[in-house]
Write a structure and sequence with these properties.
There is one protein chain. Helix content is 29%, strand content 22%. It is of the alpha+beta class. The protein has two domains: 254 residues, no CATH class; 58 residues, 2-Layer Sandwich (Alpha-Beta Plaits), CATH 3.30.70.20. Strands 3, 4, 5, 6, 7, 8, 9 and 10 form an eight-stranded mixed β-sheet that branches. The protein has a two-stranded antiparallel sheet with strand order 1-2. A hairpin with a 4-residue loop joins strand 12 and strand 13. Helix 3 packs across helix 4. The radius of gyration is 20 Å and the shape is globular. About 8% of the residues have low confidence.
Length: 323
């Protein structure tokens, strides 16, 4: 590719994705091919992953054959016991598919910060914030380059939640790659437009996740606005694959203000709210600290509080100051 011959066959964004992969320590050619397939054909990739695509059943024998040859620690279906994370008492998923593809729950304010960056970002290791092994860096060029992409999870469902274009691809090389390869599915938006999408999705009761993937250079590459009915990652998390990390916050109920109306229960995507003795109660194990319920309480009885057991928040401005 150094002599330029590759340019006749590869798009500019593909070459830049390849070059960035070469500059990334530990990123193999297999990782790059995986990332290329994932970024180039996300609807097929996610559709098969969720089981909604017609090819899912046909490809499952091939998948099982390939998986049987993988080292046990990398086996996508393996579910070993989580390991304790030093310092915060919480658990890190170990040796699972989730190690390389996962989301960090972020409340609305933190999500807006992620689409409001106007300078390059290089934070290579976020072990305390992102408790996963293989994908936990935030490294972005042109962070103001943002796309609104039709959500692959929603698009794979027969009766999806609307609107579809609520997945935000943030920064290069990812935004340029998606924009060049999926022009009919994605549109370029400004940081202000991205913030408005986040606020509208929050109003609909959907959860913001900052997504990381090993094949996407081991980095943060997108904010997805997720609902339990459509999101493949939320489905996997609910069925035992620990793909989502808590925001670092926990919902708190002010019993003096709560009237037990149950309105907040309807919006909890993690089924963490229930009714006790005439007041709402929070299941601390299920609560991911997304904050969606807080704005839905007309009484102002709900709030988020920091919880050491839930890990560290992803607050990009604070992380930038520390870096």
């Amino acid at each position: 590719m150094k002599n330029g011959k590759g340019r006749r066959f590869l798009k500019t964004s593909t070459l830049e994705f390849y070059r960035e992969g070469r500059r990334t320590p530990g990123y193999s050619l297999y990782d790059w091919l995986h990332g290329y397939v994932y970024g180039r054909w996300p609807y097929l990739y996610i559709g098969i992953g969720t089981g909604e695509h017609p090819l899912a059943k046909r490809l499952s024998p091939l998948y099982r054959f390939i998986a049987s040859w993988l080292p046990k620690s990398e086996h996508p279906t393996a579910q070993p016991e989580p390991e304790p994370i030093e310092g915060d008492g919480s658990l890190r998923p170990s040796g699972t598919f989730a190690d390389g593809y996962h989301g960090k729950v972020v409340p609305l304010q933190s999500a807006v910060q992620l689409v409001s960056i106007n300078e390059p970002v290089k934070i290579p290791d976020l072990e305390q914030v992102i408790p996963y092994v293989r994908a936990r860096a935030i490294i972005m060029q042109n962070p103001e380059h943002i796309l609104a992409l039709e959500c692959p999870c929603r698009s794979s469902r027969q009766n999806p939640c609307l609107p579809l274009d609520v997945c935000l691809i943030v920064g290069d090389p990812f935004a340029s790659f998606v924009e060049e390869h999926l022009p009919k599915r994605a549109r370029r938006i400004s940081p202000n437009e991205a913030a408005e999408i986040l606020r509208a999705e929050d109003e609909r009761g959907h959860v913001h996740h900052a997504f990381f993937k090993d094949a996407m250079l081991g980095r943060f590459y997108a904010i997805c606005n997720c609902c339990a009915c459509c999101c493949g990652a939320m489905h996997a998390h609910q069925h035992g694959t620990p793909m989502l990390a808590s925001s670092g916050y926990l919902c708190l109920v002010d019993e003096d203000l709560c009237i037990g109306c149950g309105e907040c229960h309807e919006y909890c995507q993690f089924e963490a709210l229930g009714l006790g003795a005439f007041v709402s109660v929070v299941d601390a194990e299920k609560c991911m600290g997304c904050g969606v319920c807080v704005s839905k309480c007309a009484q102002g009885a709900l709030s988020l509080e920091r919880s050491a057991k839930k890990g560290e928040p992803l607050e990009i401005q604070k992380l930038l100051r520390m870096a």
